């Protein structure tokens, strides 16, 4: 199966998404449709890792936040992403990070949808790389 393209999207646009296209099969991807019309399954973004918090007893589930100029991405990483979870635990916030991850949604009630990211890869980068990502994302969105 071909891997989905990772889209460059700002946090503000992603967080304002309110429509999901659910996959109908076991291996069929789900998509989030952003306000500007991007149909995304995977994201690529760079920002400032502001915090990492263990949210389970055993420490095998962490929540992190990555800020860009438009808002904040929320990441959840657990035992199925052990390598990424370990990397997150070892980065001292604040730090510039590049992230590739899958879109996730939570719909507690009809008409309300929250979005988050399940990171697949994360690495520290420098301010120059972050600045270039911002410029390229502005050009492409």
Structure description:
The chain is α+β, with helices and mostly antiparallel strands. The chain has a single domain (6-140), classed as OB fold (Dihydrolipoamide Acetyltransferase, E2P). 20% of the residues lie in helices and 47% in strands. The chain is built from 3 helices and 9 strands; from the N terminus they run βαββββββαββα. Strands 1, 5, 6, 7, 8 and 9 form a 6-stranded mixed sheet that branches. Strands 2-3-4 form a 3-stranded antiparallel sheet, with no helix packed on it. Strand 3 and strand 4 form a beta hairpin. The longest helix has 14 residues, at 127-140. The mean pLDDT is 91.
Largest sheet: 6 strands, mixed
Written as H for each helix and E for each strand, in order along the chain, the element string is: EHEEEEEEHEEH
Q: What assembly state would you assign to the polypeptide chains in this entry?
A: single chain
Shape by Cα distribution:
globular
Kindly state the percentage of residues in helix: 10-25%
How many separate domains make up the residues? 1
Which structural class do you get from the secondary structure elements? alpha+beta
- The N- and C-terminal alpha carbons lie at a distance of 27 Å
Report the portion of residues in β strands: over 45%
Known CATH architecture = Beta Barrel
